[in-house]
Amino acid sequence: MALMITDECINCDVCEPECPNGAITQGDEIYVIDPSLCTECVGHYDEPQCVSVCPVDCCILDPSQVESKEELQAKYEALQAKG
């Protein structure tokens, strides 16, 4: 699954620079995660970095973006190929 940021986000700015895929950006009111870029840090780290740094635990699995670890790995490899 890709991750999403809930409306509990306090705009603390710690997640955006931690995302190795550039999937996190400032939205209209809170930060947002682009599911086409989110690999849950598969290929980079053992755990999603936004989840590990979020002080309010608002980075959660997005139930509308179900992906297996294999699919996340394939997305990571495709993103790396695009450079």
UniProtKB/TrEMBL annotation:
Residue span, 4Fe-4S ferredoxin-type domain: 1-29
Xref: InterPro entries: 4Fe4S_Fe-S-bd, 4Fe4S_Fe_S_CS, PSI_iron-sulfur_center, YfhL-like
Gene3D superfamilies: 3.30.70.20
Name of this chain's protein: 4Fe-4S ferredoxin iron-sulfur binding domain-containing protein
Record organism: Sulfuricella denitrificans (strain DSM 22764 / NBRC 105220 / skB26)
GO cellular component terms attached to this protein's record: cytoplasm
GO MF term list: 4 iron, 4 sulfur cluster binding; metal ion binding
Cofactor field: [4Fe-4S] cluster
Keywords carried by this UniProt record: 4Fe-4S, Electron transport, Iron, Iron-sulfur, Metal-binding, Transport
Pfam families: Fer4_7
Superkingdom field: Bacteria
